[in-house]
Write a structure and sequence with these properties.
Chain lengths: 1010, 196
């Protein structure tokens, strides 16, 4: 068993790391707030490989839920320690805070001198740990989703000790006439009619209402005229209204208000009888004035009707269908019908515009074609419904729901139409471009030429039905679009995927064709001209022609907004129509031509190259799409990254990328603490050890916090580890991201963010530079790194994680490891001992260090009594039994002997010391004083195996290498913090490092005190 | 994690008993088992008999013998709930502080009665601490040895009277406990050890 004691540390946050980590591992989704930045939906956690116990979700969950409870820990020799369970490591090493050895005879409690700040127990020393009277639900999180007043939560929340509460249905008894209840449920009226109220007041109270329905007091009636100006404005107003109502936020709010399901329906677990079935009440629900008006009012021209119809129907239907949305059972068709139109309507209108704008000339021609085509394509017309039913089912919820999609993806998809709203996401960004392209293609006669264009056109075409044209031709198209969008949505998000998914929806026939198409994608991207497609093509043409009016009206607005809108519309139309593969291909082809194409272009090539691959890797492709855009722009490393990603084959990687960016910030904040620890340059190098899955990540961190590291390493194998896990887990999401990405890419983005966040101005600048300066070199190197790291294991890899994690670690490290820190500090203090940095450099050495760190149980209490005693003479080591503890389970016993002689200094350090005696001196100096930046770097570079760090400027902290950066970064901080005083303090505090190895029978303790 | 095949090792929810190398018989429901580290976590009924609490035992199977599966799990284990990490961290911190505070008092030579009283007050009023041998409650009331009601000093007010009530009740409870102790010596002893 090993114990480690540090000076007093009262860091409140200490527990966080462990807890956070654990929770993350729990995977239940109760991430920390910090984590929230990334994608919650994340497969992230799954992607990360946990080591040891951390991979065991249930073990992690249980151990985490007992964090902070008192426990009794029995070790092999029969000794019992009592303490507060703090955290645990991947090897199931356990950390007890405020632990003391329990004396056999019951006594009131430990004396102050008996208590060790924290003890790390190696799993192999632990026999049994007993946590008494633990409330396993103590930390259970009540998600905001689950209402506090659900039956489950009500019954689950018990104040005091009650037995399980049995819920009984409430029975009003006979005294309450059921009619009163029934009347409430069945009352169809929407509250009092205002006139009734007025009348009542007048009769009862003699109050006369001054209500004027024209609201002349508040507003001025609209004067209508036939002037062009008015019409323009009216059109503009209508358009604005559409836009607003098409926006996701609007829909979400409306859905919120009009969700038909009562609170009880949503949350109750009580099963009610038939009573609930009557939906009549829904009819009575409050209807927003706007929507009411629509139905009653006619603004002006007949054409308005069409949009309104779409909208109104959409709005009303969309809002009301609430139940449908939630209940999967509801027929897909209905959803499509109801929901589809509403959202689509705005889009549909836009789409026509888009077409028109470019293709207006063509429109006439196309229209003619359309008409002809329409009739024959009866299939096509029929198709839409089928689609909706088949594929639409999944997406239908989105459309109909006005409700926001539950899954992020859906949101994107749904919003894609609005375009602007979703622009933020990379996907959306791409989509617009594509759509534009598609639109142009569709409009252009070329459609006939390339099947793909046809495909695009098809969507609009399908939808179009001559009958629909009634008021507006556009309206029909809109409907079609609406229908299609559902299908399309997926396609939009994933260009690559489009082919297969979209295919299905159209016709079963087409499906087969499409399948073939997907398979043969490369060979015959455009070759599969389905009849349906052709028909489709004609239709789109028609749209433009139909909507000339709109064009005129829209022109003004269209020009400005339409950019996005068109994109959206195009998406809707193209995607909707879409035929999956064809559309995608079309977009791809079109893209190259257009300047905007860049982002999409990558995808296009991918498709061409490996259609199959793309399909299979749908996720990846998307990721590439999105990820590359952001990152590539920044770094220009597209090609490299792509390769890396591909090589990784980790679909998850892509998703993570976004997180990537996010990570840096959190990390930054923590970074400040680093200064305390001396920077250990070598850390980076150590990562190679694949052995510790978690460790590698940790290691990177270590470099960041110089002070911490030294200690870290020594104990790191086991004692330190747990903390890292905590950190690790927390970071996990982030980590995942980093993994997927090559080092630099990750770093670069991170860096900027860090800057913003960084507290230390001085640090920031340095950080900044690295990113910019290092950027180029890094790029080149990236492949190398990626290869190394990736090949080994995702976890190991990454220097990136290092960077990101580093901050976390440091922060945590301080809390968690404060003792460690101190000890390290001690180490640092005495020049004789190797510098921290040195230690880090050699991986192999670590184990040894670990041992040194461990203290034998017996001695512990004795030594600890004076935890604070900073000034113990070095040579206390051999207090108890002279024999070095052979037992250090992991570490070779022989090693101990060496290290023991040097208390704090790990054996590893010694060699290094010699080598870098100067360095050590420098390090010491650094610790104490600012000056060291250069020396550290040098050391670092030397230690660091990675060429990059070396190559860049040893002198300049900016070196591209992440670790280098960090190290550099640290320096400024140290300076700022006034490391010196604190450092000194640490040194004094330093506790002694106790290394005790207990063999089963014999204890040997080696104390080293500085 | 090496995912143990179904039925190969311990399945969550099954009941297991075993004997440690230190001669302790353990039994409980499997909550988690980690094959690599040979760690088994059991959940048992609370040793204090409280229904909403459990004892959790973490066992290193390397030092255990006579492992018996009493009965296998009957139903699939429930999903894991998210944990409020900050809550856990806070608990860890407060527990530690409490223990250190207690240790401080002990090393200061406070009598057992004083420590017990401190524990009792602390249950009600978190804001209490040791100052040498005096208990300071809410920075307002000072209770000095021998910690009787009369030893409560401070500004006259609700705080003082409140603390006095607590002290009074504490000693009343202690008295009743003692009387019980005579009748049920063993049980009380157990309680006192637990309470300590």
């Amino acid at each position: 068993m090993s114990m480690k004691a540090g000076g007093n540390r009262g860091k409140p946050g200490g527990g966080n790391a462990a807890g956070a980590a654990a929770s993350g591992a729990g995977g239940s989704g109760g991430g920390r707030p910090n984590l929230g930045r990334g994608r919650h939906s994340g497969k992230g956690p799954a992607a990360v490989i946990f080591n040891g116990v951390y991979a065991n979700m249930r073990m992690v969950h249980v151990l985490t839920s007992v964090v902070g409870t008192k426990c009794e820990l029995k070790v092999k020799n029969g000794a019992v320690y009592e303490g507060v369970f703090k955290t645990y490591g991947p090897e199931c090493d356990l950390v007890l805070d405020a632990a003391h050895r329990k004396s056999p005879e019951p006594s009131l409690g430990p004396r102050k001198e008996d208590i060790v700040d924290s003890i790390i127990f190696k799993a192999s020393d632990v026999v049994v740990v007993t946590f008494k009277d633990v409330d396993l639900n103590f930390a259970r999180k009540v998600s905001s989703d689950t209402d506090n007043f659900t039956d489950a939560s009500v019954s689950g929340r018990i104040n005091g000790e009650h037995k399980e509460k049995d819920l009984e249905p409430w029975d009003g008894g006979d005294t309450h006439n059921s009619d009163s209840l029934e009347s409430l449920d069945t009352d169809v009226s929407n509250g009092w009619d205002p006139n009734d109220m007025f009348k009542y007041n007048e009769e009862k109270y003699g109050v006369l209402s001054t209500y004027d329905s024209s609201l002349s007091t508040y507003t001025v009636p609209l004067e209508r005229d036939d002037s062009e100006e008015f019409q323009k404005r009216e059109a503009r107003a209508a358009q604005l209204a559409e836009e607003i109502e098409a926006s996701a936020t609007y829909k979400a709010r409306v859905a919120l208000e009009n969700d038909e399901r009562s609170e009880e329906e949503k949350y109750t677990a009580v099963v009610r009888g038939e009573r609930e079935t009557h939906m009549l009440s829904r009819e009575n629900k409050y209807i927003p004035p706007g929507q009411r008006n629509r139905e009653a009012m006619s603004w002006g021209a007949g054409r308005q009707n069409s949009p309104r119809l779409g909208q109104s129907s959409a709005g009303a239907s969309a809002s009301r269908p609430g139940p449908h949305d939630y209940s999967p059972n509801s027929g897909p068709d209905q959803r499509v019908v109801n929901g589809g139109p509403p959202r689509m309507s705005p889009k549909s209108q836009r789409t026509p515009r888009a077409h028109r704008v470019p293709p207006s000339r063509i429109s006439s021609v196309s229209t003619g074609v359309d008409l002809g085509s329409h009739n024959p394509p009866g299939e096509v017309s029929a198709a839409p419904p089928t689609r909706s039913s088949s594929s639409g089912g999944t997406w239908s919820s989105v459309v109909s729901g006005a409700h926001r999609p539950r899954s992020p993806r859906q949101n994107n998809m749904g919003r894609a139409s609005p375009g602007s709203s979703s622009l933020s996401s990379p996907q959306t960004g791409t989509a617009p471009v594509e759509t534009v392209a598609t639109l142009t293609l569709a409009s252009s006669p070329a459609a006939a030429a390339s099947p793909a264009p046809n495909m695009v056109a098809s969507p609009s075409g399908d939808a179009k039905e001559c009958r629909v044209q009634e008021t507006r031709q556009s309206s029909p198209s809109a409907n079609n679009d609406n229908m299609k969008p559902l299908d399309n949505s997926p396609s939009i998000t994933r260009p690559l995927c489009k082919g297969p998914p979209s295919m299905a929806p159209d016709h079963r026939k087409q499906i087969d064709n499409l399948k073939q198409f997907s398979v043969d994608f490369r060979l015959q991207p455009s070759s599969n001209p389905d009849p349906a497609f052709d028909q489709m093509m004609t239709k789109p043409v028609r749209d433009p022609s139909d909507k000339p009016k709109d064009l005129a009206l829209d022109k003004a607005s269209a020009v400005g907004r339409d950019g996005p809108e068109q994109g959206a519309a195009g998406l809707a139309a193209g995607s909707s129509g879409a035929v999956p593969a064809s559309s995608s291909s079309a977009t791809a082809t079109s893209k190259p031509g257009s300047p905007a194409a860049p982002s999409p272009s990558p995808s296009a090539p991918d498709q061409k190259r490996g259609g199959q691959d793309v399909i299979s890797q749908g996720v990846q492709t998307t990721a590439t799409m999105g990820g590359p855009k952001h990152e590539e722009k920044e770094e220009k490393k597209e090609a490299v990254q792509d390769q890396v990603r591909k090589s990784t084959l980790n679909p998850n990687a892509n998703e993570f990328k976004p997180r990537f960016n996010a990570q840096p910030k959190p990390a930054n904040t923590p970074t400040p603490p680093r200064p305390q620890g001396q920077p250990s340059p070598s850390i980076v190098v150590q990562q190679p050890p694949a052995v510790y899955g978690c460790f590698p990540q940790m290691y990177p961190l270590t470099p960041v916090s110089p002070g911490v590291q030294p200690i870290f390493w020594p104990s790191s194998e086991k004692s330190i580890i747990w903390k890292s896990p905590a950190v690790y887990q927390v970071q996990m999401p982030h980590m995942a991201v980093s993994q997927s990405k090559p080092y630099r890419t990750g770093k670069v983005p991170n860096m900027p963010q860090q800057r913003s966040d960084q507290h230390h101005p001085p640090g920031t600048p340095t950080m900044m530079h690295p990113a910019t300066a290092a950027g180029p070199p890094i790029v080149a190197q990236n492949p190398v790194y990626s290869a190394q790291y990736f090949t080994c294991s995702p976890q190991q890899f990454t220097s990136q994680p290092l960077v990101q994690q580093m901050p976390h670690y440091q922060s945590q490290a301080q809390h968690m490891f404060s003792p460690v820190m101190q000890s390290s500090a001690r180490m640092m203090g005495p020049p004789t001992h190797g510098q921290p940095g040195l230690v880090s450099s050699s991986t192999t050495q670590y184990p040894e260090q670990t041992h040194t760190m461990y203290v034998s149980q017996g001695p512990m209490p004795q030594q600890y009594p004076h935890p604070n005693a900073t000034l113990h003479p070095h040579p206390q080591h051999p207090q108890p039994s002279a024999t070095p503890t052979g037992q250090s389970h992991q570490g070779g016993p022989p090693q101990h002997g060496g290290p023991q002689s040097h208390p704090a200094a790990s054996p590893v350090q010694h060699p290094q010391h010699q080598q870098a005696a100067a360095a050590a001196a420098a390090a010491a100096a650094q610790a104490l004083h600012l000056s060291n930046a250069p020396p550290q770097q040098q050391l670092y570079s030397a230690l660091a195996p990675t060429p990059p760090s070396m190559t860049p400027n040893p002198q300049s902290p900016q070196a591209s290498f992440p670790s280098a950066q960090q190290t550099v970064y640290i320096h400024p901080q140290q300076v700022q913090h006034g490391y010196n005083p604190s450092h000194m303090a640490h040194v004094q505090q330093v506790g002694r490092c106790l290394n005790v190895c207990e063999r089963p029978g014999i204890r040997t303790s080696n104390l080293s005190a500085f | 994690m090496a995912a143990p095949g179904p039925g190969e090792y311990f399945s969550v929810g099954s009941h297991v008993s075993c004997l440690t190398c230190l001669g302790q018989q353990l039994q409980g429901e499997v909550v988690a088992f980690d094959y690599q580290s040979k760690m088994l976590t059991l959940k048992c009924a609370s040793s204090s008999g409280k229904p909403n609490l459990n004892d959790v035992i973490l066992i290193n199977l390397a030092y255990v013998s006579d492992v018996d599966i009493i009965h296998d799990r009957t139903e699939t284990p429930p999903p894991l709930a998210s944990l409020n990490v900050s809550k856990l961290a806070n608990r860890a911190r407060t527990e530690k502080e409490d223990k250190l505070s207690q240790a401080y008092a002990i090393s200061a030579g406070v009598s057992v009665e004083g420590q017990q009283l401190f524990q009792t007050i602390h249950k009600t009023i978190k804001d209490c601490k040791w100052q040498e041998k005096n208990i300071i409650v809410m920075d307002d009331v000072v209770i000095s040895p021998p910690y009787q009601v009369d030893n409560c000093r401070g500004k006259e007010g609700s705080a003082l009277s409140h603390v006095r009530k607590i002290v009074e009740k504490h000693f009343r409870d202690v008295e009743s406990q003692k009387s019980m102790q005579r009748s049920q010596a063993q049980q009380t002893q157990k309680d006192s050890t637990l309470s300590s």
